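Quick note —
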Amino acid sequence: MVARQLTAASHFPGQFPARQTGTGEQCSPLQEFFDSLRGCFTSSKKKDRSCKAFFGFTTSVFCFKLIVVNKKTQKQKQHIEILEKSQQLKFRMPTEIRISKHNALYQASIQLEGLDYTKLYRAYSGIRKSQIEPRVLFKVLVCAYMKGVYSSRKIEELCRENLVFRWLLEDQKTPDHCTIARFRGNRNLQEAFEDLFFQYVKKLENKGYTEHSEVFVDGTKIESKANRYTFVWLKQVSKQLEKIKARLKELVCPQGNLTSTKVEKRLEQLNTEIEAQGIEVKKGRGHHKPEIVRERDELALLYRRWMEYNRKKAICGENRNSYSKTDTDATFMHMKDDHMRNGQLKPGYNVQFAVNSGFITGIGVFSNRAAFGTLIPFLTYLWHKHGKSYRNVVADSGYESLANYRWLFENGQTAFIKPANYESGKKRSSKEQVGRMENMGYYEPDDCFICKNGRHLDLSSHYTSHAKDGTERKISVYRCEDCSGCPYRAACCKAKDSEKRKEIFVCWEFQNLRRNSYHNITTEEGKLLRCNRSIQAEGAFGQLKHNRNFKSFLTGGKVKVLAELLFLGLSQNIAHLLAKCNSGLQNLHLIQPKAYLNFGFLKIWKTGSSGKQSLFRRACLSYLFFGN
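Predicted structure written out below.
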C-alpha cells in the first residue's frame, strides 16, 4: 500500500487535481501524500524502527526529486511563455554566443582590442565599404591565421559555420571571400597593417616581454604564387639587347652613337618617303613589299624589341638576375622544397625576421637571393619603426660582408656574425691546405707571410676593387720571393704556369672586423647568443613553415606579400605570448641550454651522430621555449 501511494505521488505536483477536505478547503497532492503515509503508520500496531527508517528515507528521496523537478520547471519557464488570448506556447530562444575565457581566440580578441585602429579607419574610408567594420575584419583575419587558415574562401566558411568566428563578427554580416581578399591585398592599407603590428610589438616591450639588448636575424625563401615557368633571365636579356643595338646601329648611324631619338627620326623619314611615293602597304604573307617598306618594318620591329628589353632590364635591376612575368617582384631562387629533385629554381621572396625573446619584432621582404645584401636595409627599417636600435646583432655566416661589418661598427652595434670559414676551418682537410692564408704564419714587423717551406711572401702592391654589393675595398697583394724547387708548390700554388709565384690577396679591414666578430661569438655571451639564435630565429620559421603549414604566398607583389606576413607575424606573436603565459615563461628572454640537461628525457642529448644530435637539441629547446 505504501509503495502504491509513493508511486502515485512521485509525479509532478499539479498532475492530479486537488482534493477538498471536510471543511471545503483545497488539499494539495503533497499534503494528501503525507496524510496517507501518516495513516498507514498510525493504523499499524507494531511501530518498529525499520518502518520509521523507511518512512524517513522515502520522504527525503521524494523531497530531493521534488526540488530537482521544481528547478527544471523554473528553468523551462524562463524559455516558455503562454499567450493569454490564443493559449499558445511561445519559446524564448537565447541567441547570445558565449565563449570560454580560456579559449585562445577569445584571448587573442582581447589582445587585439587594445590596439589603436585610427589609421586603419582613415585608410579604409577611401575604399569601397562593405557591411563589416575594418576592425572586426582585421581581428577575423588574425584569428584565422592563428588557426592556420589562409584561403579567403575557407575564412568565409569559418565565419559562416564556426561559433567562435560568429562571436568575433559581433552580429555583423558575414564577409564573402571577395571582401576578405580585397581587404588583405589592398595597397592602401599596408601602412595601417604595419602600424598595428608594431603597436603590438611596442606593447610587448612596455610589459617587459621583449627588450632591445639583442636581436636574432634570420631569413628564409618562400615561394610566390607566380607561375614557375614564366621566367626572364637578365643574362639572356643583355645578350639579345646587344644584338639588337648592333643591328640598329648598322641601319641608323654606323658612325655615331645610337640613341632612341635617332631611331625615331629615321622611322619618320621612311614613313614620309613611303607616303610621298604613294606606295600601298599590304600586310600579311604572299605580298611583295618594296625595299623601303621592308626596311621600315625591320626598323620598327627592332625598335620595339629594344624598348621591351630595356624595360625588362630595368625591372630586373642590379641586385638580381631574374624575375617572373606574372609577379615581377619575385626572383627565381633555390628552395629547400624541391619537388622535382633537380635543383629547380622557383619564383619567391627572401623573407627576413627579427626575433627577440621568441617574438617577431620585425619583418622584411626582399627580392635579393643572398642574405648579406638585406641586413643593412632591414636594420634601418627596424630603427625607423622602433625608434631605437638593438645593441647586439646576432646572425649566421650568410650575413658576413665588409659592408655589414663596417655599417654595424659605424652605428655602434656589436656584431655577433659567424665567419664564413668558421665551420670549414675546423676540418682536417682545411687545415692541411698549405696554400690557405689561415694556415700561414704572419710576421707583423716585416709585414709578410711565411709559408710551410719557410719562404716569405712580401707585400707587393695595393689596389682598390669593388665587391658584389658595390662596396669599395683596399686589397693588399703578397707575392712569394721564390717558388722554384719548393716541394709544396703543387699543393700551394694552383697556377698552370710553372714560373708564376704564389700570391695572396688580403683586405685587412675585412680581416680585422672578422677577427673581432670571431672573438665575440667565442665568448660565453657569444655562445649563449648563438645558441639562442638557432632556437628563437630558426624556431620562428619552423613554427611558420612546418607547424602552421605555410608553404607559399597567396598574393603577388612586395606590398601584398608584406601584408600577408604581418598577419602571420601578429598571429604568431599572440599565440607565442599565450603559450609563454601558460608555462610562466613570459619574462624569459634567453634560454640557458645547460639547465635542461637535468631532465630525464634529454639523456639522448649526448647520443647519436652529430647531425641527429643537433636536430634533436633544437627540437627539444624549441619545444621548451615555444611551448607547442
